[in-house]
Write a structure and sequence with these properties.
3 strands; about 150 residues; about 50% helix
């Protein structure tokens, strides 16, 4: 099932000026676990991402939370790029990835079961190693690269 999420920016923006609106309808980005990696135990990271999404809905959570300023930052990068005539694809992709990484870092997904916390040595849901967070990426799949 879900290891990545496709996002059309025009679906996320309520109001933008008319001169910017056309650019938003052309931009699509994919975010999540884009490349396969394996944990030391051989578990597929993409399979882990799918299971975590089924349990915690982490791919939707970042897009739906009002406190996620990272989403507003990503959109602002596009607006600024259009107004200045320079769109930074890398800066934009980093900001979109942060939309999914930062809620995990902010511990927005609750607590582990006591047995899991004891085994891990800490109580941070969705964190086993740094591998999962380090592999959450975003890439522009459609839209303007330079305006």
């Amino acid at each position: 099932m879900a290891k990545t999420r496709f996002i059309n920016l025009d679906q996320l923006v309520d109001t933008v000026s008319a001169d910017v609106e056309a650019y938003f309808s052309d931009i699509e980005v994919e975010a999540g676990i884009l490349q396969e990696a394996l944990y030391k135990n051989g578990a597929s990271l993409q399979d882990v991402a799918r299971r975590l999404n089924e349990r915690y809905n982490w791919l939707e959570h970042g897009l739906n939370t009002d406190q996620n300023m990272d989403l507003k930052t990503a959109i602002q990068i596009v607006v600024d790029g259009i107004s200045k005539g320079i769109f930074s694809e890398q800066q934009f992709c980093n900001a979109v990835a942060a939309v999914f990484i930062n809620p995990i870092n902010r511990k927005e997904f609750g607590d582990n079961a006591p047995s899991t916390a004891a085994r891990k040595g800490f109580n941070h849901v969705m964190i086993h190693t740094g591998l999962f967070i380090s592999k959450i990426k975003a890439r522009l799949t459609q839209g303007v690269k330079n305006v």
